[in-house]
Amino acid sequence: MKNALRAALFLLVLAGRAWAFEPFVVRDIRVEGIQRIEAGTVFSYLPVKVGDTMTDEKAAGAIRSLFATGFFRDVRLEVQGNVLIVILEERPAIASIDFVGMKEFEKDKVKQGLRDVGFQEGRIFDRALLDQAEQELKRQYLTRGLYGVEVTTTVTPLERNRVAINFNVNEGEVAKIRRINIVGIRAFSEEELLGVLQLRTPGWFTWFSKNDQYSRQKLQADLESMRSYYLNAGYLEFNIDSTQVSISPDRHDIYITVNITEGEKFEVGDVKLGGDLLVPEAELRPLITIKPGETFSREKLTESTKAITDRLGRDGYAFANVNANPDVDKEKRKVSFTFLIDPGRRVYVRRISVVGNTRTRDEVVRREMRQLEGSFFDSQKLQLSKQEKPTGAVLLGVGFSNVDKFIVQASVQQSNFFGTGNTVGVQVATGSVNKVASFSFTDPYYTVDGVSRGFDVYRRDVNATSLGIGNYKTRTIGGAVRFGVPFTEYDTLFFGLGTEQVRLFLAADSPQRYLVFQNQFGSNYITLVSTAGWVRDSRDSFIWPTRGHLERATLELATPPGDLEYWKYSYTHQYFYPFSPRLTFVLSGELDAGDGYGGKPLPFFKNYYSGGIGSVRGFRTASLGSRDIDGSFLGGNRKVNGSTELLFPVPGSADRSMRFGAFIDAGQVYGLTEKLDLSQLRASWGMSFAWNSPIGPMKISVAKPLNDKPGDSIQHIQFTLGAVF
Questions:
Q1: 396 CB-contact burial (10 Å; exposed 0-12 / middle 13-18 / buried 19+)
Q2: At what angle do helices 2-18 and 56-68 cross, to 10 degrees?
Q3: What letter does residue 714 receive in the DSSP assignment?
Q4: Based on CB atoms within 10 Å of each CB, which residue in 85, 229, 290, 626 is the most buried?
């Protein structure tokens, strides 16, 4: 295109010279033929002004300058006396851009992309830019696997020298990966190696993940994953020789071939430490996870290097450099490493600057800092300081569950209220069993030492009729003040004091034991409730943890002068262990106990229940334990629950908001007069699916009891969508 433009300009110059005229002084300049472009715009580009002497060279320069603007299709110069007449034919303007047959992309986003390259409505129409836009559109379709796409453009002239641009798109069918060949495999099976790759042939979940559609970026990531897999298995000399990607003539099928050289498998020889060992070798040795005699693993080598670097960083050596120098013995197929340590200079933190905190007060941010100014740099404290917390959440939604049926919920929580760092929460939820309305306020730094103080006001209505535990309703209105005292980064003690008013509603068909309780203690209770507890949370994520512990122990005590006198103790423990980047093992346990004192029993509406999601899946919610003579579930004052689960992402998807699980649950509740007999535990196994959906958390389980007894209430499929209280 550029060569054609140069040729056209050259011909124009020749034409100008052939037109030769006697030089004259320009007394006036007249512009003709323009429709949209202002005359002043033309004069600004015209190198000839009134009073200039017009020559052949200046005429040729004027034509070149006006053509170079790109505004005009034709430029001619004429002379009448001493008046220079500039006759122009404007290029048309783009009046509209439309797409026909486009389904894969949103039209507005495509227009925005074309706008970035200068092709948009209102601009001068340029055939070269149109060709570029067409090619860019095809390229975008290729990234989606639509290799058979056909794009044709139609330019329709309109009045007032405008044009309408129409892109007619025939998207065709998505090309699928029909075969992935890996040539040179000896150490692993083809199936095992293909499992490492993200790209795959069509399967059950590829309709969702799109991993059966070729992408150059995905292929490069897969090649690196394959390289890491071999290097972690000891193949130090592994190499990817070449890759070929071909497509069938009908553009429906894609074939990928990867040629590799595995090399030999290496073991680790000696592991030494060298350089400037500011930290005792006895302390550094345990940080090295790659051991002599083991199969070489690049992952363990990297972990060891990072662990030593982080350890030096804790002592202020922010720019420490640790290199693992290899010594390869190809004959013995062994590789030895010397970790050379260069700690550099010890660093002090002179100043910490906080930028971007337009909503949060500076002191609110600084009080979360574990790294202090004027002290040595500490990488561990810096990491703790960088951990972000969500500052607010709004949830409006509906849900459904086996227990609460239809749920409507709305909640607002702001953890940085007006930039103060305080947390304010409002929550309203209604279901067939539970109805909740609450307000909470927490000041996380009530004292400078990090002691928190909070207030809660709530109302909770429970309708147990549909649970099978007997017909009763309660209405609880209460308020409480609570304090939290942190004594490590992960451990917190908490204390609380509150009061509740509980109203009990029974019906004619309520179980006899409920009626007896009402006759003895009434149906309206004022309770003074004290709480104390301890929590340790070292999980790496609150939403989707993959490693760490969560332990919680709580004691609830209802004391005089309240109408009810009881105690309840609860201990829960969750342990998360990552088997691999995609597999997480979870071990959970729960022990609960409670009773009355002072001659008063534990209120029946404070009993423990087990069964269903959150306890023993596969059994109906709250159905475990003994039953009354009317068939209603009694619950108990003691509860034992345990669970093991292996969590993994949706196959072929990297979406962390969805996870599958394979689980085994066990649990039981025991009444006051029943012996704690573990042989009475009920157990089940099955599969689960969890998704943090836009309208709230979703959980689905399909379970089968392992040791159900006659009379047990079985429920194989259980689910909940939205929060259940």
A1: exposed
A2: 150
A3: B
A4: 290
Quote the percentage of the chain above a pLDDT of 90: 35
Same domain assignment for residues 656 and 518: yes
List the helix and strand counts (H, then E) for the chain: 13, 30
Better pLDDT: 10 or 271: 271
Tokens 């760092």 identify what position? 421
- The answer on 439 and 314 residing in a single domain is no
Lowest mean pLDDT among 138-147, 180-189, 273-282, 551-560: 138-147
Higher pLDDT, 483 or 699: 483
**648 within a domain of the structure (yes/no):** yes
Tokens of 692: 């943090």
Instruction: Tell whether 383 is covered by a domain.
Output: no
pLDDT at 654: 61
Average pLDDT of the residues in 594-603: 92
CA distance 45 to 428: 67
Alpha carbon 436 to its chain's center: 29
Joined tokens for residue 366? 């600084």
In a domain, 507, yes or no: yes
The answer to whether residues 177 and 200 touch, using CB atoms and an 8 Å cutoff, is yes
Q: Which structural domain range is residue 72 located in? A: 2-90
**CA–CA separation, 538 and 193 (whole Å):** 34
Question: Is 573 found in the same domain as 471?
Answer: yes
CATH number for position 118? 3.10.20.310
Range with lowest mean pLDDT among 256-265, 296-305, 626-635, 701-710: 626-635
Looking at the structure, tell me whether residues 197 and 307 fall in a common domain: no
Given 34, 61, 90, which residue is the final one in a domain? 90
Tell me if 304 sits within 8 A of 289, measured CB to CB.
Answer: yes
Q: Is the separation of the CB atoms in 671 and 626 below 8 Å?
A: yes
Cα gap 407→579, rounded to integer Å = 37
Number of domains in the chain: 5
Contact between residue 470 and residue 464 where contact means Cβ atoms under 8 Å apart? yes
- Please list the residues that pair with 571 across neighbouring strands: 553, 591
Mean pLDDT of the chain: 83
Q: Is 29 left (phi over 0), alpha (psi -120 to 50) or beta?
A: beta
Is 594 in the same domain as 522?
A: yes
**Banded pLDDT at 71 (limits 50, 70, 90):** confident
Give per-residue pLDDT as tens, 380-403. Answer: 666 665 655 544 444 444 444 444
Is the pLDDT confidence value at 623 over 70? Answer: yes
Alpha helices, H only, 19-87: 39-45, 56-68
Q: Cis peptide leading into 561, omega within 30 of 0? A: yes
Q: Which long-range contacts (CB under 8 A, 24 or more apart) does 29-33 make?
A: 29/83, 29/84, 29/85, 29/86, 30/83, 30/84, 30/85, 30/86, 31/86, 31/88, 32/85, 32/86, 32/87, 32/88, 33/87, 33/88, 33/89, 33/90
Same-domain check for residues 83 and 99: no
Cα separation, 691 vs 700, whole angstroms = 9
The string of DSSP codes covering 430-473 is: E-SSEEEEEEEEEETTSSTT--EEEEEEEEEEEE-GGGTS-SEE
At 482-528, the pLDDT tens digits run 999 988 878 999 999 999 999 999 988 888 889 999 999 999 999 99
CA-wise closest residue to 486 among 447, 529, 442, 539: 447
Say whether pTM exceeds 0.90: no
Q: Which of 170, 193, 218 is the last residue of a domain?
A: 170
Residue that the structure tokens 């196994």 belong to: 685
| Average pLDDT, integer, range 293-310 | 91
285-302: average pLDDT:
92
* DSSP-derived pairing of the beta strands 321-329 and 267-275: unpaired
pLDDT at residue number 3 = 43
